[in-house]
Records
---
Amino acid sequence: MSIKENDILKKFRSFSENKIAPHASYIDEKQNIPEELLTDLKKSGFLGVLIPKEFGGLELNYIDYGLLNEEIGKVCTTIRSLITVQNMVAVIINRYGDNLQKSKWLPKMASGEAIAAFCLTEPGFGSDAKNIQSGLQAEGKDKFILNGNKKWISFAQIADILLVIARAEEGLCCIIVEKKTVGIEITPINDMLGARGCLLGEIRFNNCKIPQSHLVGNLGFGLFPVAFTGLDIGRYSIAWGCVGMAETCLDISKKYSKTRKQFDLQIFNHQLVKRILTDMAVELKAARLLCLNAGSFLENKSRDSFAEVLSAKYFASKMVRFVTARAVELHGASGLKKGNPVERFFRDAKIMQTIEGSDQMMQLMISRYL
Amino acid sequence: MNELKKKIKLFISEKIDITNLADTDDMFKQGFVNSLFAMELVMFVENEIGVKVENKDLMLDNFRSVCAIEKFIMSKK
């Protein structure tokens, strides 16, 4: 399957290369996103790309959405993650939100006026999401009281709305919580190994009063299918981001191997280096095909799309760890030095193994389809 | 057996490794299915049967058994 170069792809690439790439090292080093870049992102319309046009979004199809993640993944994992989370939450609200929720939040998310965070993981529960303990208790006819802790939440430090999975009497629920709600405390989590600009946080909800009208989907269906709809999109985005990261590492490695000489030869001409580059290239091609395949299933609304996305995420996150590690090796000492993108992508790649489901969780879920 | 029931049963048989599932068996209560199945079931009803599952329809009573799914679909047509 091949994708024709189109205008939207050219726009992604141009934005990525000209607006994001110059900030990528800074974001990694300072663990923050420059205001100037956030402003450019909001203006670009790339934050809410899956949001329907009627709410101000670009309403991209899933293949184009994947290509956007690939292009941005090529330069900066943090910004790719920001777009991923924003669209995970947007897809959930668009699919399961009521008309009031859609008309209130989707235009703000499309314009970037509202940055979203997806709050599933807790200090004691990650993969074991069914046992989440944050609690929602009904108060009167129109409110819930939310108590509990969420941890490792991407963009918690800058989010305006939090999509929270919490337990009510009827089971797990999904609810929109505005960050200005009284009783919310956010503690930044810094110094992660990779994806260091993702502004992670731990969030405590202390007797937060939330209108019942903020409930997304029915009581008891917060995890399946509501949250899982978002996780599906998250995994798809990450898989494409991995492809982008690997493409950059392969590209840099090829160029380096043709300039660096050892034993009177460009290292590219040593057979063992050719072997490494070939393995990198073929693994990358395979991952990209799995991503295109998953995108095609999503676009066709196939019920098997969930399985195809899991396979793409599982394979692409393994592939990017392999490719980035080989890129670092090919660069020798210079690949271990901060400032070399392969060093940054090597660290970022390890995060891809954990986020939106560990390798082991992917294996367990994929095995169900065998 | 009508066509709709046949389609529902075929979908379920592809997903659950069980023989002799009675049309009234509660698949969720009896532990035949896990939560991922719930997602696929919603997608099946929407994309292959062509019935939109609204928020208010997201209730286990609509999806518990072959009969429940059939009844739910018929109520939306």
---
Amino acid sequence: MGVRPDNRLADAPMHPVACTSCAARVLVRKASWQQTSVQWSDEAMAACSSWSPGSAVKGLPPVCDRLRDSIAQAVVDGTLPVLAPEDD
Amino acid sequence: MTAVHNGTGADEVRHIEFEAAPARYARGWHCIGLEREFRDGKPHSIEAFGTKLVVWADSQGEIKVLDAYCRHMGGDLSQGTVKGDEVACPFHDWRWGGDGRCKQIPYARRVPLRARTRTWHAMAQDGLVFVWHDHEGNAPIPEQAIPLIDGGPSDPTWTDWAWATTVVNTNCREIIDNVVDMAHFFYVHHAFPTYFKNTFEGHTATQLQKGVNRDDMRPAEVAIGAPKRLGNTSVATYHGPSFMIDDLIYHYEHGDTRTVLINCHYPIDENSFMLLYGISMQRPEVQDDDPAAADALAAKMVATVRLGFEQDVEIWKNKTRIDNPLLCEEDGPVYQLRRWYEQFYVDVDQVTSEMTERFEFELDTTKPIEAWQREVEENVARRAEAAAAEAAAAAVPQTQDA
């Protein structure tokens, strides 16, 4: 079957963001101030110090607070672009 | 001049592309219905996975599932009778055991060699019966086990399943797409999500949603006398390709109500599926005068869910399959969800980490962003100032040197 690539990533790909408190490196994309996508790799999951199995299923905040802060910091630092900042 | 336009870029017409629905069915546990309905001492017929199954309970209460078509002359075992532990074919009374072996042919001295039919792994929990399907014929994979429900009919303080089913004539990928389709909740279901989160990881795909209702848009619910709802908090997870458990809290004027919504399906063939759904509700601590009030409310809730699915079905039966949806930034992670879903349609040894690695998508409309935005603007301005000052400082000696 094969799944097509996301048309949105062609124009604006994901950006690497490193967690400031552990060795996890993830790919992040912010389409707006309100919208955040995070792509983990198995390596990042292994490096993350706060993830626990099944957290997503229980509806717990899946991004740990420290990674959340790291993403916010990357935005503040200007290393992670917000694609549609004027909309909000 | 010819009128042929081979447009490029913005002028180019976007074409919808799709391949035929996959000829195989997803690997995983598929709920086929309520346990109590299969325990009536009769064989039951389930059209699924492009074939027909017979389901019955043996004398020990174990649910057994075989191919429905008798290997003798093709009779339909699901139209037969349960005799002892076996299902008897209505055509020539051949007796088939849950292990797939023919145990007895009443008119024959002995059962021929190779009198063996296909068995399906089955299990029952939380009042539901599940059948395992794997294109490769492997036994159930432990990681794809269906977790026990927190609450629900196994807990005496909750109502029994209020349950409904309907045949939908489209490929089941359409209902999977709903996991990520935030915008359709507004336009199709008239709900207004204020917080939305998807997480795909391993065999699970989760949708966390907090929303408020659009009161103006619920005449159908008002018509059936459903109670006035203010909003809901929903944590819905697909455990494998077809079984979703939704821990759903309804916020009503009179307080919160905890419910579990099951949304599941099994493919009948590649162009149709059976949609099954049900609700169990925690009984209110203070019992009403009417002890059946909670069950009546659960039944009304299922009627509400039915309205929701009817809205979906109306869209599905008229839409086309599309492999290359043209998404805007406000849409959810449709492609990433389909990448996750793909794992159930390939051999186990073809599952790539790309299909199972964790992906998260969050939309939070509740957080005030103005302060954050201001901080960034200030930072950028400060940095621009510093850069300008640095450039000016660097430029001065250059001018002197020149």
---
Amino acid sequence: MQTFDLEAQGLRALNSTLHALKGQTNETAWEIINPKGSHAIAVGLDAPVDVTVRGSTGYYCAGMNKQATVRVKGSAGPGVAENMMSGTVIIDGDASQYAGATGRGGLLVIKGNASSRCGISMKGIDIVVHGNIGHMSAFMAQSGSMVVLGDAGEALGDSLYEAKLFVRGSVKSLGADCIEKEMRPEHLELLADLLKRGEADGKAKPEEFKRYGSARKLYTFNIDNASSY
Amino acid sequence: MCGIVGLFLKDASLEPKLGAMLTDMLITMTDRGPDSAGIAIYTRPEKGKAKLTVQSANAAEDFKTLAADLGKAIGATINLVSKDTHAVLTLPTDRLDAARAAIREVRPTARVMSAGEEIEIYKEVGLPKDVARRFDVAHMSGTHGIGHTRMATESAVTTMGAHPFSTGSDQCLVHNGSLSNHNSVRRTLKDAGMTFETENDTEVAAAFISHKLQEGSKLGEAMEATLTDLDGFFTFVVGTKNGFGVVRDPIACKPAVMAETDQYVAFGSEYRAMVNLPGIDTARVWEPEPATVYFWER
């Protein structure tokens, strides 16, 4: 295990050290101590390494992640795992706004609650939230899946494209063009896999969720819908 | 951007350290607002006494005989303590309004930062660390306080454009965000008799709440009304004599984190502002919900 003291060594040194890990490396396990809510921790990683952050992080932790597994032993500030490409990011606490925004792949797990705009414009990332999500989550979400064990805030999935949304609790309101959809066997199978990979298989069963998706009425321009855009 | 910090102490043993804790929090928020900084600090009141905090660009000259001149004008004995560009005038509580009115005549170049039994406001242009050092905030004690680091958007970078804004006795407000209907709200409030010192949007929010309180609203109700009457982006932190409140607009894109322990309630635009507070590792830390009023009063 390689230990990096962020307070003593600084952010640039941390990220350049982690960026230097390319392809196969023997230094596969890292821990970052004294994060103290700093911004941009472990951003832009591109190697199959495990990074554990011992504390809470500020803006943009684990952004643009590829291949790496980043675990935050605390809460994460705005924009965690933004534009993730692959790999896994696990937040033990809560995540602030726009967690997993624009993510193209990989898995983001939030063990507490996520606030507003979780998964906004997601494009292939999978997101599993053990708690609740805030308003405008999955806004314009294009692909990938979002699983919420708790409740969803206002305007879930507004202007949704083809992302699949699964919510176990209540949904305060659905956004424009987002509707509840039938849960078919392939969705239950997908959910079971996501719950397992999202470290939530003991907490919830696939049958307890409802599925939400796009009514597909807005995303091809139709003049009759002009007032809804 | 802009950074906000706030501390409301529940444990009186921390009171001598309030200024030091707020200074540390404020300096951490420098990246969010390096233009100017300010702090409102609420101290234990002195029986029968109130304080007027004034600022002048020409402090040496303006403050030299101010206590005597203003004292003569209002017929009271005034004690003056000068700190850099600011001075705190202590006078009998029942002469506070008279003093606030008279100072315009006695020292037209001095500007009132705050008035009340407990509040003192210090604010200036410059980096937060420099502003805090100039007023020696680190050595101040108090029961609660609010600080702000400003990145200006809606009005010029001036002392008067810095936060906190105080538009009522022992009241203050700081803001992260921008209001879009401040001109029309200012007009309405002027018609209702409120006065304004600047063209700043935040001053309108402060006056809006002060006006509601004058009309008899409770702090929670006045803050609730900002959600319907003010248009724009905001996270507000409000201070009163007994309390401390937080409200975010329904979109809630301006960040906010709160922490509570048995000893204090703390506010920060970001978690990193709070990392050096005692017991933060075991504190209850949460993000205030959009369009929801939070307040603590003693």
---
Amino acid sequence: MVKKRPRRGTTRVPQKLKVKIGKLELENPVILASGTAGFGREIREFLDIERLGAIVTKTITLHKKEGNPPPRVVEAPWGLLNSIGLANGGIKDFMFEQVPFLESLRIPVIASISGDILDEFIKLAEEVSRVGCVRAIEVNLSCPNVIHKGTRLPLLAQDRTAVEKIVSTLRKTTEKTLIPKLSPNVTDIKEIAKAAEGAGCDAVSLVNTYPAMLVDIHTMRPRLGNVCGGLSGPCIKPLALKCVWDVHSAIDVPVIGMGGIMDADDAIEFILCGSSAVQVGTANFVNPSASLGILEGIEQYMAKKGIADIMDLVGAAKA
Amino acid sequence: MKQFKAKIISNRKIAPEHYILSFKRPEKERRIEPGQFFYVKISDSYRPLLRKPFSVHKISGYSIEILYKTIGEGTRALSKRKKGDILDMMGPLGKGFDAVRRHKKVMLVGGGHGVAPLYALAKQLEYPAVPAGRLSIFIGARTKDHIVCDKKFRRLGARVYIATDDGTRGHKGFVTDLLTRKILGSRDKDTGEGRGKGHTAIYACGPKEMLKSVWKVARRYGIPCQFSLEEYMACGIGTCLGCAVKTQSGYKLVCKDGPVFDAKEIVW
């Protein structure tokens, strides 16, 4: 006999999809990635956002950021190259304009923050920690499109000492679940992840975009206004998958995996490699309701395979 | 929902590199403004990955038309889609033209396939018929093969002025040469003065360089001007902040704040 799947919208699901990331409990492991859904306002017209696990906000900085000169996005083969430059209204705009809306959403909000120097990270963490619906903080240490004063290296996430210092300081600042977001563009991502774990984070998010560029052969100039940017989309999936695989075996805290997840199959690969939750990014641009399709696909896969608890899938791929 | 599956009614070639695709209108209730766009997923493959924006070319009770030129792999793939095929679309998106009917003269300026949204606008400005001499359209393109829709505008009662870079059709040179000549010609013959505020309006769409020179002409003669702008975009709904354009009040988004902007807002 074929088991009937419960109707949409019912709270009872055939399998256990709940995952726990630090203190953060998610109804399911599908999360909207930072910078790809703003603060949820626009995408809500296309997507029943409240059925997802969580939303990560656009990265918030202390002061308003105008962003980089256009063109800011350009299509790459199987991917998207962007250099937005963390354009956002700053912490005040977040607290007064975005929080009231986010409070109305019945899903956990993960606030993404980034700063130039340690002091900015502290101030931002203090502010967002006061917001009830903000259940976790994703610390963006890996945006390839801004310059940080906190390190001599291009990215904070490339500087082990900077990662340790920022994470350990924020650990003292906030009670909320702390999730540094790492860059794949490092010699050994395991080392950085271990440093973050040692400094007291609850989980790690990976990967951010890959530093990349494209050139227009007619004008003989870089295609992006800011010359270089970050590459995302299906072209980076196998690269990101390896990062998740490596980090999962190196640390004990949960890994939130992302990088070119376009459909449920991609998401399941990430889960099998050790992601306790997955973030959907570029796919939101291609299809704003992609994340829900991914969630439904994961449920179908589990039903087909007879898997009752999603945690049985996390890291289930064996060498 | 603003996302829907659209059935292609026809997809016909109108010039060597230009096509008009007609699809079934999603919901009759939804208002569609000239200048708004539909965001189309051309194929299920990852190449091209992103949707492509197309402004509304013609709106009717039953169907919507978009006009496009085969420029890259996306538009080339679109040209191969057949009648009956289903396209995943989002739209109508963005802010359209603010069509003011009180202007005595309306000048439309289109560069190549930039005429696409201007036709929908022309139809809306004066329905059912345009009084002779009220509406003029200036079409500029590289060669005669890139001049499209001139006959359609003529049928609407518009005066059509054509310029090509190579002189294969109409004036050899810039479309703004013709625009300037027309503006000067419409000035008061005795005093040489302009006809005052609110007399003429310009609506334009085309390459950035063309728009920039249209703006220079418009500013010199104090004529209000609205431009439909183009910029690379990813999400189409205002979340990714990719399609930024510099304005007097900071960066604005082509997909959400535009694609139509008042020309004096733009920082050139």
